[in-house]
From TrEMBL:
The chain crosses the membrane at residues 12-31, 43-67, 79-102, 114-133. Required for ciliogenesis. One of its GO terms (biological process) is cell projection organization. It comes from the Eukaryota. Keywords: Cell projection, Cilium, Cilium biogenesis/degradation, Glycoprotein, Membrane, Transmembrane, Transmembrane helix, Vacuole. Belongs to the TMEM138 family. It holds the Pfam family TMEM138. This is Transmembrane protein 138. It is found in: Cell projection, Cilium; Vacuole membrane. It is a multi-pass membrane protein. One of its GO terms (cellular component) is vacuolar membrane.
Length: 163
C-alpha cells in the first residue's frame, strides 16, 4: 500500500481544521459571558471535534501497512505519548467545560473559584501540549516507511527511536 498524497492531504487538512476549531473555542469561551446555552453548544462542539480529531488520527494509523500486517506495537511505541495526551486533554477539557457551566448556572455573579481557576489554567497549558503532539503525530504518520513493505525489523526502520 502506497501513501496516497491526495487522501493524506485531505485528512491532514481536516485534522488541522479540527485543531483550529478547538483553539477558537478555547479563546472564545473566555470572552463569552452572555449565554450559557451558547457556551453549552460550543463545548459540545469542542468535545465532538476532539473525538473526531482522535478518530481521524486513528484512521491514519489503521490505513498503514504496519497496522494492516499486525505490527500494532510499532505504532503504539511510536505514538503512545500522543494517544495518552489526546485522551488526557479530552478528559480534562470535558471536566473543565462541565465545571464551568455548573459554576455559571449556580452563581452568575462570580463563577470562578480557586480550584476551578487552577484546573482551567492546567487545561489551557495542556491544550498547547495537545496541539504540539497531535500535529507532530499527524505529520509523522505520513512517513513512507509506514506504508511500504520494508524489512520489518524495528531497528532498521528506526521505529524505536525516542519520541
Amino acid at each position: 500500500m502506497k501513501l496516497n498524497t491526495a487522501r493524506y492531504s485531505v485528512i491532514l487538512s481536516v485534522q488541522v481544521l479540527l485543531l483550529l476549531i478547538d483553539w477558537v473555542i478555547n479563546v472564545v469561551s473566555i470572552f463569552e459571558r452572555n449565554s450559557n446555552a451558547k457556551m453549552l453548544v460550543m463545548f459540545i462542539s469542542q468535545d465532538a471535534c476532539l473525538i473526531l480529531a482522535l478518530s481521524a488520527l486513528l484512521l491514519t494509523f489503521f490505513s498503514t501497512y504496519v497496522f494492516q500486517n499486525g505490527l500494532v506495537y510499532l505504532l503504539y511505541d511510536r505514538f503512545r505519548i500522543t494517544l495518552l495526551v489526546c485522551m488526557a486533554y479530552f478528559i480534562l477539557t470535558t471536566v473543565v467545560n462541565i465545571w464551568l457551566l455548573v459554576l455559571r448556572w449556580n452563581n452568575k455573579e462570580q463563577p470562578w473559584n480557586i480550584p476551578f481557576f487552577v484546573s482551567f489554567i492546567i487545561q489551557r497549558f495542556m491544550s498547547a501540549i495537545y496541539y504540539y503532539y497531535y500535529k507532530r503525530a499527524a505529520l509523522r504518520i505520513s512517513d513512507p516507511r509506514f506504508y511500504e513493505d520494508l524489512d520489518m525489523e524495528p531497528e532498521k526502520l528506526n521505529y524505536h527511536t525516542s519520541q
